[in-house]
TrEMBL record:
The gene is Vwde_1. Residues 234-295 form the VWFD domain. This is VWDE protein. InterPro entries: Dev_Signal_Modulators, Ig_VWDE, VWF_type-D. One of its GO terms (molecular function) is signaling receptor binding. It comes from Ptilonorhynchus violaceus. It holds the Pfam family Ig_VWDE. Coiled coil: none annotated. GO terms for cellular component: cell surface; extracellular region. The keyword Disulfide bond applies. Keywords: Disulfide bond, Signal. PANTHER family: EGF-LIKE-DOMAIN, MULTIPLE 7, 8 (PTHR14949), VON WILLEBRAND FACTOR D AND EGF DOMAIN-CONTAINING PROTEIN (PTHR14949:SF52).
Amino acid sequence: KVASLALQPVIAPELVQGRVHLKCSYSPPSPEPPLQYRVLWSRLSGPGKREQLHHETTLQSFSHVEMDGANLRLGDTVFCTVTAFRRGTPEQQSLPEDSKGFYAGIKFLPESLEIAEDCKEHVLTVLSTVPIACPGQDDSCKITLQLSTEDLDSRVPGPPDIALSACQVDLLQEPCSGGRCAAATVTVTAVTDFVRDGNRGSRVGAEPVAPRDVLWRAHTPRDVKVTVRDLPTGNCYSFTDPHIITFDGWRYDNYKIGTFLLCRSASRLFEVHVRQWDCGGHRSATACNCGVAAQ
């Protein structure tokens, strides 16, 4: 009976006296005799490898460990492993049961994006899985993140293929629920660069700005990779006296003098006007482009 207990350990974050702790809770069987529990805390130190952090034996159905920034840091993926045994017979142990890995820190959702050069905005959520503590009474309970973008494709020099709606976001303290203890959103848009440069990769990064709490100072959240799918660009022309080629390849001439609407978008606020003047003199009625205005 001891060997097949369903303890189901689960890790959840909480504030204990203003400090960030992780709590491992498990379900003691009932109406079993009183049991003792051996709780082992560990973190992911590499692919498939764990490093032991702390262990204790307790009568309680939970165990705490503090995120002190030294032994346990933001950015760690943490596990708790629970084994039960009856008092007086520690050799009769249950099978050890693992919790799911708990990532403690800031992360982006979704963890990767694939977008296109179609002017659409895509929502990116940045959240903290642990509570935001207040270092002092006069401080607001928030973490300010500086956002950045970087081009990952060294073949095509130039600025990143993406644009953000904000350069900074604030993570404000709120009750922890559904894996988030603070969250903010930012929109990502692909830059329409009018260049056939293929699909390109960029990244979005975040870095805490001068936090007072030492726990956050060395934390660098995981980046988000954004793949921008290249779309063909339409072109139209008005040149010389003026010959006009439309987006769909239709060709005609416009020798008149005046201001004309060259193109207008039916889906967004965008249009181009062109002004033509007399450049043919007395010999021929010819107009040339002399000005352009774009909204």
